[in-house]
């Protein structure tokens, strides 16, 4: 016993030490991870006062203020001593009267594009380009990619972006192998960070091309002009909106990091006026003809009307300046508006048009714009990060494509650029197919478990063990090391936040393997419990199990402790739930910090980065776990893994459990062989701890190993009775068919409304009738608390109070509900959620039920309220500041 306690305390002390040192090291290595940037960075005219412009354009010694739309700065070299003046690719720009020569341009990616990377946030990048459009330097100023913080060294990103230096910004550049025959240049990707580098490629190229076009390095694309059909009578407002002649762009206050409000941040409608069918309907015939007579060939009129708390014209607009909140974009070309491009729009003539606070007609004066092709109206804004208060550039845009009915010959054929996640899925098509087949194979094998365990015996378990071993090996090799598709607690935290605050499909779709794996995991956890993933498919769990088995075969068997003493196990198994709870709580304070702490998972060290690429704290921690795995069966899974804990909570409600007999309690033969120590003295299996090794199921059917079956077999043999097959209930099928029993009375079927009523009552009302027999003061306090908690949640959903406060109240309520339920309704469901099988609940069962149920209720209500727009009407509800 002393040995175990000393070992356990040393192991956990080392773990804590390693985590602490690991965090310190990680914090040092992630130099640009969530690096604080000056708040003036996105607004101050003197960009180079805040960022190292000289680093990205060698030879430059002075820089202009921000200019242009989108913004860039000019880089100059002093030519007073002309021999020393650098030349850029032989470009000889003439020097100005101060002896300065323009040698290139510097720009900040977030001034130009708003392309999120894997974290959902953009990588803030400083780019330098010479006067011929050759990239002279790229520097990442800030990123939020967790994989580059603790998974892949940040130097890999630096190495990646260095590949752009010396390349022409207008070249076709793709991540992966180049295709010289098609003029496509290739870039070496960063293994394990595909999404980040694909997004970064778009960031560098799109920003570069936009600036190169603006300064005249790249000539604008000339598109064939549209030929319009004559109007067939004027249309009303709703028809114009329905057919897409008028488009709608709405930005909510929450989209720019402000508290939710009933009024949108901006709610714009816009359309293309040159097309007679649109222009005449919107302006009326006389105004339309007047407008057209003012336009020169190649000029285009666009109307914009808006409501909301923000103005699209901008309060800081000065005469002669540029409207800096709206622009039109067509492919890589952007069109901005000066005051001369603005005309008053006094009224909308289309019947049924609502009234608007702001209106304008903007003229695009460029023959390169063509109404025959799609374009976007872009609203440029600043988005505030509610956690840090940092403002970043954000653009919101809406596509517009003139309906075919206005165009002679209809819309032209075009190939639209695909979303980043589509590119990723296409690039890895073969692997995606193989991975889906692997998932399907795993699901099928487990679904056939009854057949496999019946064929196996307790002495020879190959029918069950061989398929499992194959899954383990493929999981380690193909899924872990090759695909790097290792589910992690950080993904659970991201899902958690996304469900509660903002769901973005692109974010989850950007890694096909993780996306598919999680769908599989969620489904199988509810079908069979966490054991399907943990016991059969987790790359690290599989590795740990193989290390244990291999060590035994290599002579360590006599030192191996299959199991910890039950007393120790029963205490230590809670540690993983504690780790998960701490990570979850910290994630509400800072996702970055939670991601660092999630390094308690050795997955990155094992698969994503490789142990040889890590610093000593990570290596020590990893080695300790490996060492422990050689002597104990899955120590990390049983006691430390936060992901295992997160999956264990919903496993309480798995629909299909394992088979048991009434003798399982006193017999305990299965419990002795259970590597997960998941079988309690009454023979009940704890689904949260069971890793579905299926040993107990082999025993269940084995008439030589299962004591009640063995007894019956011996009895029959002695009595000369035949050995009939073993039935699904785990007993020999009776020799004489059981006497026909009286058919049980058909269960009284509940009507659907009664069933729904009972379910709603059970889940939302934790009290029993006993509550009404308590003192009136206690009843009043109980109900006041209920209303307060609900109110706090509503305030949280409306963005009026921070997630930390909501989480605090949510946890407090969950503890209260847990206690109440254990007194009033001490049972949870067993089996499918639609059934009514109830079983007595342990505290752990009830805690899992309450936590999970409250999370689901909160998320469902949030989504319904968001979807129906109710959230927007909560801005005026009393804030109850005294509560927090
Ligand atoms: S407990 Fe953790 S490491 Fe173990 S199998 Fe499950 S997820 Fe993998
Ligand atoms: S022996 Fe049975 S209860 Fe124990 S882990 Fe295996 S399947 Fe689960």
UniProtKB/TrEMBL annotation:
Molecular function as annotated in GO: FMN binding
GO cellular component: plasma membrane
UniProt entry keywords in alphabetical sequence: Cell membrane, Membrane, Signal, Transmembrane, Transmembrane helix
Signal peptide: 1-26
Residue stretches spanning the membrane: 432-448, 469-493, 513-533, 574-594, 614-632, 776-795, 801-819, 846-865
Superkingdom per UniProt: Bacteria
Record-linked SUPFAM superfamilies: 4Fe-4S ferredoxins (SSF54862)
InterPro entries: 4Fe4S_Fe-S-bd (IPR017896), FMN-bd (IPR007329), NosR_regulator (IPR052378)
Domain FMN-binding, first and last residues per copy: 117-211
Main location: membrane
Localization annotation: Cell membrane
Record's protein name: Probable transmembrane regulatory nosR transcription regulator protein
